[in-house]
Amino acid sequence: MQNEAGSENVDNSWTETPVQRLFLTHDKTLRSQKRLTMPYLYGTKSPLAVTKTSLHRMKLKTLSASLLAIGALATVRADGPAPASAPATSSAAPVAAAAPAAAPAPQYTEAQLLETFGWFLGKKFGLSELDFSKEQTDSIVKGLMVAAQGKDAPYDLQKIGPEMDKFMQAKQQVYVDKLRAAGHAESEKFFAEVKKKPGVVVLPDGLAYEIVKPGTGEYPKATDIVKVNYTGTLINGTKFDSSIDRGEPAEFALNEVIPGWTEGIQKINKGGKLKLYIPSNLAYGEDSKPPIPPNSTLLFEVDLLDFHAAPAPAAAAPQAPGAAPAAGATPPPAAK
To answer: For 118, which of 42, 75, 265, 313 is 20 to 30 Å away at the CA?
Structure first.
């Protein structure tokens, strides 16, 4: 059966599909990442691991919030009470009320505002990254028009949902593959130049480092706790992390971060500074952690301020003689 608009009567109680989850969980993941310091150092095996996403998404500041704020400000100005005038003295002659100031002319037309809002939606949902053709984009706009008119979905979402998931996942995979290929090519070109720089040491696994200022004394071990100041950038200069910008040094176990850090920081001693050139295989590989694309080489400048041995794990409390073993515990071997 069809509704008056010529569309199928549909069941709108659609169970959330991966396509919906892509948009619903992406922002939640980023928000949870921002609650952690040093989000770009920890590996997936760390207790402080940060979830990796499989798609590099452009994040925009909330233009819609700005538009809403402008509208709210206009409403306040239009509806708010006029400021009270100073009371006139009994001896003063009546003063005519001043004419209200003319409202400033709008800087943009309604059409311009809506066009920009449409651009914002397209960027938020990655229309350019997913490389839709003009015909495909026209179909998307057609669906937006149906939704804007308050009509039901053109097709039964329970039935079309799985097919839409497959289609979108294929689009996403093509995009991710392009990012991976671009990242790999960029890194290959970068390391070819880095190897020519005087003072750069390249290790067998691909990690390169450069001592900027030697330190003194012992070198940290992988199991030590290090205290550092650092700045991390991409090859193109984009800064993605910095303890300096946060205003305080970072302190963490060296074996809980990405492999390039674990290996590289052991090449400098206390008080020293070095540059790390970390290939993607020692960072995040083919995964993406916005704003870090897949197969990205990471550059760090690191000051090793201090380090110390990690505290020994707390010993288990001795069990009282004759006490029953804890649930799930392996029983001691029986005496012969």
So the answer is: 75
Domain span holding position 299: 1-58+126-310
User: Is 44 within a domain?
Assistant: yes
Q: Which H helix or E strand runs over 67?
A: helix 63-79
Nearest to 294 by CA among 147, 177, 136: 177
User: Cα(139)–Cα(145) distance, rounded to whole angstroms?
Assistant: 10
The amino acid at residue 34 is K
Write down the pLDDT at residue 94: 58
Residue type at 75?
T
The pLDDT of residue 314: 75
Q: Report the C-alpha gap between 183 and 170 in whole angstroms.
A: 20
Does the CA dihedral 55-59-64-69 come out positive or negative?
positive
Catalytic sites, residue numbers: 230, 240-241, 258, 284, 300
68 domain residue, yes or no: no
Closest CA to 19 of 140, 156, 161, 170: 161
Amino acid (1-letter code) at residue 63: L
Q: What is the mean pLDDT of each run of 10 residues along the chain (336 residues)?
A: 44 39 38 42 40 36 38 38 46 64 88 92 86 91 93 94 95 92 94 94 96 95 96 95 95 94 96 97 90 94 96 72 50 43
Report the number of distinct structural domains present in the chain: 1
Taking the C-alpha atoms of residue 249 and residue 242, their distance in angstroms, rounded to an integer, is: 9
Has residue 238 been placed in a domain?
yes
- Copy the structure tokens of residue 269: 């001693």
CATH of the domain at 231: 3.10.50.40
d(CA 255, CA 47): 11
Find tokens 């003689």 and name the residue: 321
Q: Please report the pLDDT score of residue 129 as a whole number.
A: 87
Cα separation of 124 and 22, whole Å? 12
> Residue 1 domain-assigned?
yes
